[in-house]
Design brief:
The chain is built from five helices and eleven strands; from the N terminus they run E-H-E-E-E-E-E-H-E-H-H-H-E-E-E-E. The chain is an alpha/beta fold. The strands form four sheets. Strands 2-1-6-7 form a four-stranded parallel β-sheet, with helices on one face. The model has no long low-confidence stretch (mean pLDDT about 85).
């Protein structure tokens, strides 16, 4: 039940930081359930039960190596480093793989939404919002940061006018993090001073 303070840790098998947190939780006798998302649905099983008679949150049970968790017992969620699910090798068709992967993501997001009123460390929606450069700019201004004049545009003429206004003292940066994959090689686009 809620008073027992169950902690759900959403991560992956290789996350050594979660290993350290879990050891600390064990040392304190805390109750936790580690959900390595890549194991869902091949190893982790889920069942959702919703009654027709009354309006209530559906009960979702997760079963993982003989441990079972009723998510209604969770009051804290640590959203650390989830990975995409590993699908059965029996699913050879790419279209089938994409469809199943999408269904899994929707199901897991549904579970997260049912837990949204609990205490979260790194709620996914907030992570996405916090990573948005436009939102960061707005928030930084609201809390008093001194910021350089900024233009975000896809219009070459606006960019050129801004460059001229600033006498070429301008840097450019990506909106999405700067990761690019080309021919199976990953490259990064850093913040750069532009010359023309």
């Amino acid at each position: 039940n809620k008073e027992e303070g169950m902690i759900l840790i959403i991560t992956n098998k290789r996350d050594i930081h979660s290993d350290i947190v879990i050891q600390k939780l064990k040392d304190r006798g805390a109750k936790f359930f580690r959900l390595n998302t890549e194991d869902f649905p091949l190893i982790i099983k889920s069942s959702l039960h919703s009654s027709r008679e009354k309006i209530e949150l559906p009960h979702i049970y997760l079963e993982y190596f003989s441990r079972q968790l009723d998510i209604s017992s969770v009051n804290t969620v640590y959203y650390r480093r989830p990975l995409d699910s590993i699908l059965s090798p029996d699913i050879a068709d790419t279209n089938d793989q994409n469809f199943i992967a999408k269904e899994i993501k929707v199901l897991l997001k549904g579970i997260w939404y049912l837990l949204e009123n609990n205490f979260w460390m790194n709620y996914p929606h907030n992570n996405i919002k916090a990573g948005n450069k436009i939102f960061q700019l707005k928030l930084a201004k609201e809390i008093g940061f001194i910021l350089p004049e900024t233009v975000i545009t896809n219009d070459p003429e606006t960019a050129k006018r801004f460059f001229e206004k600033k006498d070429g003292n301008v840097v450019v940066k990506t909106m999405s993090g700067g990761f690019m994959e080309r021919n199976s090689k990953i490259s990064l686009i850093y913040t750069n001073k532009i010359n023309e």
